[in-house]
Amino acid sequence: MLPVYNPDLKFLEMALASIRIQQYSPIELIISDDTLVVTPEMETIICKCKDWIDLRYSRNEMGRGIFSNLNNAIRQSKGEFIQIFSQDDLMKEGFIENQVTSFEQNANIGMVFSAFESIDNANQQYVLKTKRLFNPGESLTIHSAEITEMFIRYGCFVGNISPVMIRRNVIESIGYFNEELRFAADFEYWIRIGRTYNIHYNNNIGLAVRDHPERASFLLSNHQLMSDLTYIYSLLVERIPGNQKAGILLHINKRVGAAFVHHTIVQILKLNWPISVLKRRYHDLNKYPFNSIHSICFYFLSIPGRIWSRITPL
């Protein structure tokens, strides 16, 4: 599944070339386009693809963003396994084969996601400023009974949409991405899968995800993302036994709420956002399961650790 929207054609051609080197067969490629006007250059790229792969190109008439576009692509597909991929990422050799092998070796899993490296716009490996919380160092299967605890502890530990492959019968069972969640529908979808099916993590680095350094800061300051996560974490907390909820709520405010406070302050100091955003963020973080006072307190308590992480190597 390759959803596209006003793609950088250079990056798109590289993404397609990385699909072309996959040895697994057969592969169908579904390109779903959310772009209003298809350029002649894009049409040329599509025509070239038809020479080497079973390609279906579809315009997403809904035009409602990435998850509407993904749903449109899935509806056009026929394959037993659905590999999601982004328009500017790169598959490594053997990636698709390794994903399918994980399913063949684990009959009881509904979704596989792989380790990945981050690259910048010059295709150079991009060193993240902070370590990923979820980094087990080995392949493992996360059982459905563990999934709520894992998502509360690590957040959306899958990390991106490109490493994810899903069985078709899983999608037929649980439905499509929730298009009302404009930024975090992938997070909610992985949770939905994990409630019924086991999820497998493949520790082999299978692809390179293009990381735009400002992207996270921009999204983490976004009101819609905060709204999405309020909904998602409410769903997670609902599944926690009553005697554990108080501790879980503190953990969510410490890890997620404090991060939103931090990024809001950073954006204001960079003059990217007016100081009035503080008032909006305060109200955003007062919606259950978040608590503004707790989030702000945890943010200030985290400042020494943030400073230390900046001056010490990973």
End-to-end distance? 34 Å
The CATH topology of the largest domain is given as Spore Coat Polysaccharide Biosynthesis Protein SpsA, Chain A
Number of helices: 12
What structural class do you assign from the helix and strand content?
A: alpha/beta
Q: Which term fits the overall shape?
A: globular
CATH homologous superfamily identity of the largest domain = Spore Coat Polysaccharide Biosynthesis Protein SpsA, Chain A
What is the CATH domain class of the largest domain? Alpha Beta
**How do the SSEs run, as a string of H and E?**
EHEHEHEEHEEHEHHEHHHHH
Q: State the share of residues found in helices, binned by percent.
A: 40-55%
**Main sheet makeup:** 6 strands, mixed
> What would you report as the Rg, rounded to the nearest angstrom?
20 Å
Mean pLDDT: 91
* Number of structurally distinct domains: 2
Provide structural commentary:
With 314 residues, the protein is of the alpha/beta class. The chain folds into two domains: 2-210, Spore Coat Polysaccharide Biosynthesis Protein SpsA, Chain A, CATH 3.90.550; 215-311. It is built from twelve helices and nine strands. Strands 4, 5, 6, 7, 8 and 9 form a six-stranded mixed beta sheet that branches. Strand 2 (28-33), helix 2 (40-49) and strand 3 (54-59) form a beta-alpha-beta unit. The radius of gyration is 20 Å and the shape is globular.
